[in-house]
Write a structure and sequence with these properties.
Layout: E1 3-11, H1 20-33, E2 37-48, E3 58-68, H2 70-81, E4 86-93
Antiparallel strand pairs: 1-3, 1-4, 2-3
């Protein structure tokens, strides 16, 4: 059953030479390879954290709306967990 989801991905760009656009395109390609259909990508910009967890002062926030199977989402979660550029990832099931 195909469901609609919304993801908030926080990227750690500290000390990275890649641009934000290339990081977002890499993540979107990973999502499409997992079998998810992208609907919208919003770049929310860089924001400072209220405290410095794991010595990271700020992160670049990206909101992605997509649709797909739950198993594809689980595969994406595990793949992005291994990506060193992804600092945090949150997923929310959207109502139709």
């Amino acid at each position: 059953m195909t469901r609609k989801y919304e993801a908030l991905i926080v990227l750690d760009t500290k000390g990275k030479e890649e641009t934000i656009d290339s990081l977002v395109s890499t993540i979107s390609k990973d999502m499409e390879k997992s079998g998810l259909k992208l609907e919208q990508i919003d770049n929310l910009g860089k924001r400072k954290f209220p405290f410095n967890p794991r010595h990271v002062e700020a992160g670049h926030f990206v909101k992605i709306q997509f649709a797909g199977e739950t198993s594809a989402l689980d595969a994406l979660r595990s793949k992005l967990r291994l990506n060193e550029n992804v600092y945090q990832q949150y997923y929310l099931k959207r109502c139709a």
